[in-house]
Here is the input.
Amino acid sequence: MKKRVLFFGIFLIALACSKSDESSPLVPVKYTLSVEVSEGGSVSTSGGQYEENSIVSITATPDQGYELSGWTGTTLTGNSISVKVNSNQTITANFTRSKYTLTIGTVGGGSVAQQVLNSARSDTEYESGKTIRLTATPQNDFLFYDWQQMLDNLSQNSFENPLKVEMDQSKTVTATFQEKLPLINPENTDKNNTVGKWKIRKKRPGAQEESSSGRAVACNIDVIILRSDNSFTIMTETATITGEYSIDSETTISLNQRWIAQRGNIKIGTLIDIKLSNDYLSFNIELIDICDEQLEADRDLTYVEATDPLAPANTVTQTTGTSSTTTSSGTSTGS
Here is the structure.
């Protein structure tokens, strides 16, 4: 009898405990998801605690000049991933600098050397943000003319040599070289290759003035015109100077003006160290007691000597004076 009572008591206790467990709510299992990021980008969430089997969406966004190289802590790929949380885990978005290709082309006789100003992966593929110095070297019978490259879908040129190129995208840069020309064609001595209108290249801000004499004084010349009748016109910011020129050698031209009082030509300046190609002219100009400067110029392809209003042959009335220097206020003459 006692055994039956004891067994019945144990049964009641077990039954009471069973009912108590059924009435208690189940506590959900939670896991911690940590989302980290390397240099060069950001992620849409840093993570947190999530219930088991939750789906968490994560988007990795690279900074300018970077790209997502992959994720650590998961086999998922792509910039946007969906992670199923079923354990504590850490996921890292890894970014690397973008790699861009620099393609170098040449026109004419010359070569281009690439100097990496900071690290690069190979000779032609560079990390974003890196700066490359390109140096164009012409062959002996050629001159460097310019660089051409596409920027914002527009073809742009630059005369600076060496040229610094910032790698913010893949780029193609072409160096153009032009064959040197003699001032007078040896096969046709009546052909003067210097004839034309030459527009002086503007010097970049901060560029150091140069001259053959070492005492550079800016001439502020905008245009120089050399004509087939050996007349010339120099246009500065404040004056127009005219006269006659003579080719003294393959690298030298004398500039002269006729003064009636002197009954002859007076030398007012020289162009020396002349280098000439079809579209390019460089020289050191010295206007006596005025200025001395190294200049570069480009041929004006629209110029026609026959319609040049300043050409002596096209001047209706010739003013006979002692000086042919015309300023912005008029023509100065002397005895």
About this structure: Helices lie at 2-23. The chain has one helix and 25 strands. The longest strand covers residues 264-276.
